[in-house]
Write a structure and sequence with these properties.
five-stranded parallel β-sheet; 4 helices; globular; alpha/beta; 28% strand; 190 residues; seven-stranded mixed β-sheet; UDP N-Acetylglucosamine Acyltransferase, domain 1
Length: 190
């Protein structure tokens, strides 16, 4: 099993692996180009985003600056919006549904490190997938931790630290993030 296969399977892996270093370097160069592009260079930005995040659905909008580890481990539905200064550490798969809004400074962390010092000292790390359901809104500065899922139509309050799964149709906030109340999602009028 390659180090990348271990990484994507949520097993301990060596991030110093040549293939992983090359993939990260590719993502750094693409994010640098994206973040350095001008606002009036829409076609170039769209090209860079397609190359950086090949698993993105149509109508992706990313405000620069944007940062990620790999980009190719991010799956996006239709109509996804990342506001300024978002970070996606995609050492494990990050799946985001349709019609999702991410406020400024939202951070999605799949990366994690061993708790015991000896293993951590070895340089190995791991990751756990993150999933965000359709029609979610993650408020500015929210942090989604490794292995967390946010259910469809839920809203995460600004500045929240999400350490465990959030069900569908709720407003959740705080540190640690907890359900505050149910949201009654009415059918949208056409």
């Amino acid at each position: 099993m390659t180090e990348r296969e271990k990484m994507l399977a949520s097993e301990l892996y060596d991030p110093r692996d040549a293939e992983l270093q090359a993939l990260r370097r590719r993502a750094r160069l693409l994010t640098r180009a994206l973040n350095d592009s001008r606002d009036d260079e829409e076609d170039e930005r769209a090209r860079l985003l397609r190359e950086l995040i090949p698993n993105a659905g149509p109508h992706l909008w990313v405000e620069a600056p944007f940062y990620c580890d790999y980009g190719c481990h991010i799956w996006l539905g239709e109509n996804v919006f990342f506001n300024f200064n978002c970070v996606v550490l995609d050492v494990a798969p990050v799946t985001i549904g349709d019609n999702v809004l991410l406020g400024p400074g939202v951070q999605l962390y799949t990366a994690t490190h061993p708790l015991d010092a000896k293993t951590r000292r070895s340089g190995q790390e791991a990751g756990r997938p993150i999933a965000i359901g359709d029609d979610c809104w993650l408020g500015g500065g929210a942090i989604i931790n490794p292995g967390v899922s946010v259910g469809p139509r839920s809203v995460i309050g600004a500045g929240s630290v999400v350490t465990s799964d959030i069900p569908a149709d709720v407003f959740a906030a705080g540190n640690p993030c907890r359900v505050i109340r149910k949201i009654e999602n009415r059918a949208m009028e056409e």
